[in-house]
Design a protein that fits this description.
Layout: E1 2-5, H1 13-24, E2 29-32, H2 39-47, E3 50-53, E4 63-66, H3 73-81, E5 85-88, H4 92-106, E6 110-114, H5 120-126, E7 133-135, E8 149-154, H6 160-170, E9 176-179, H7 185-198, E10 203-207, H8 213-223, E11 228-231, E12 247-252, H9 258-271
Parallel strand pairs: 1-12, 2-3, 2-4, 4-5, 6-7, 6-8, 8-9, 10-11, 10-12
Helix pairs in contact: 4-5, 7-8
C-alpha cells in the first residue's frame, strides 16, 4: 500500500509565529483561551508553564497572550487597564477580517459574518461591531430581512465552495452587497492540495484537532471525493480502515505540528 502526504500540510505562518513567540515569552504567561486548536501543542505549552485562562479576570499580573483567533478590542483594553502585559498574536489574516468588518460597519452596511457562530475567531469579529449577523449555512440566510446594504466577511478557515454558495443566495436578499474575501491563502492552498490528492487515493486521513475549524473544512472537502477519516493522533488509526486500500492520502490542519503528522505517516507505513 502506498501512502502520500499532501503538500501544504501542517502549521501555517500564523500558528508557527504564535507558538514561537509564546515559547520565547518569560515570566508569568497566560494564553486567553487555547493558543491554537490542537490539544497536543496545548499540553506541551502547559509543560513549559504557559497557562490557559478563560478570562482576564483570572489574571492579576504577568503577560496575557491573545491567541491566533483574536478577541474583541475591548478585551485588550481591559487587560491593559489592569496593568497586564499584552502580547497580541492574532493571525494577520484574522486581524484583516476584523478590520474589513469594522470598515463595512462604519460605512453603514449590515455586517454579515460567514462562519461558525461559536468559534472564537467569529466571536472576536462580531465583538467589535454592533448587531452583526452570523451565517453558518444556507438555512441561516432567512435571518437576512429588510437590509438594503450588506457587507460580508468570512471566517478565515471557511471553504471557498461554501462561501460562493452563500454569497449567491445573499445577493437575492438585498439591493447592495459588498464582500471581502477574507479566507486566508494558506487555507485555500491546503484545501486545494487535499482535494487534488483525494482524487488519486482510496482513503484520506485528515490529522488535526477536533475543535479546529480549518481541519474540519479539510474533512468536509475530502469527504465529497473519497472515504475520509479525521483523527488527532496516530493512536486513533484502525486496521480495518486500510483493508483493500492501495493508496492512502494524508493531510493535516494548520494547527497540527509536524511531529504529530510524522507519527501518523510512520504508523501507516510500518503497520498497515
Amino acid at each position: 500500500m502506498k501512502a502520500t502526504l499532501a503538500k501544504n500540510s501542517g502549521f501555517c505562518f500564523g500558528v508557527k509565529r504564535a507558538i514561537e513567540e509564546t515559547m520565547k515569552t518569560g515570566g508569568k504567561v497566560y494564553t486567553l483561551g487555547p493558543l491554537i486548536h490542537n490539544p497536543q501543542v496545548i499540553e506541551k505549552l502547559k509543560g513549559e508553564g504557559k497557562k490557559v485562562v478563560k478570562s482576564i479576570n483570572e489574571v492579576d499580573k504577568g503577560t496575557v497572550i491573545i491567541r491566533t483567533h483574536g478577541v474583541p478590542g475591548k478585551v485588550i483594553e481591559r487587560a491593559k487597564k489592569k496593568g497586564l502585559g499584552v502580547l497580541d498574536l492574532t493571525c494577520p489574516f484574522v486581524k484583516k477580517t476584523q478590520d474589513y468588518a469594522k470598515e463595512f460597519f462604519d460605512k453603514g452596511f449590515k455586517v454579515v459574518v460567514v462562519g461558525e457562530k461559536n468559534h472564537p475567531e467569529v466571536k472576536g469579529i462580531v465583538g467589535n461591531i454592533k448587531n452583526s449577523i452570523v451565517i453558518e449555512n444556507l438555512g441561516d440566510i432567512k435571518k437576512i430581512k429588510g437590509y438594503e446594504k450588506i457587507g460580508v466577511v468570512f471566517q478565515t478557515t471557511q471553504s471557498s465552495e461554501r462561501a460562493k454558495e452563500i454569497i449567491t443566495k445573499l445577493r437575492e436578499k438585498c439591493k447592495e452587497i459588498e464582500t471581502a474575501n477574507t479566507i486566508c491563502n494558506a487555507t485555500l492552498e491546503r484545501q486545494k492540495t487535499a482535494k487534488e490528492l483525494a482524487k488519486k487515493v482510496d482513503l484520506m486521513i485528515v490529522v488535526g484537532g477536533y475543535n479546529s475549524g480549518n481541519t474540519k473544512r479539510l474533512v468536509e472537502v475530502c469527504k465529497c471525493i473519497v472515504e475520509t477519516r479525521h483523527i488527532e493522533t496516530e493512536k486513533e488509526l484502525e486496521k480495518e480502515w486500510f483493508e483493500n486500500k492501495k493508496h492512502v492520502g494524508i493531510t493535516a490542519g494548520a494547527s497540527t505540528p509536524g511531529w504529530v503528522i510524522n507519527n501518523v505517516v510512520e504508523r501507516i507505513k510500518n503497520e498497515f
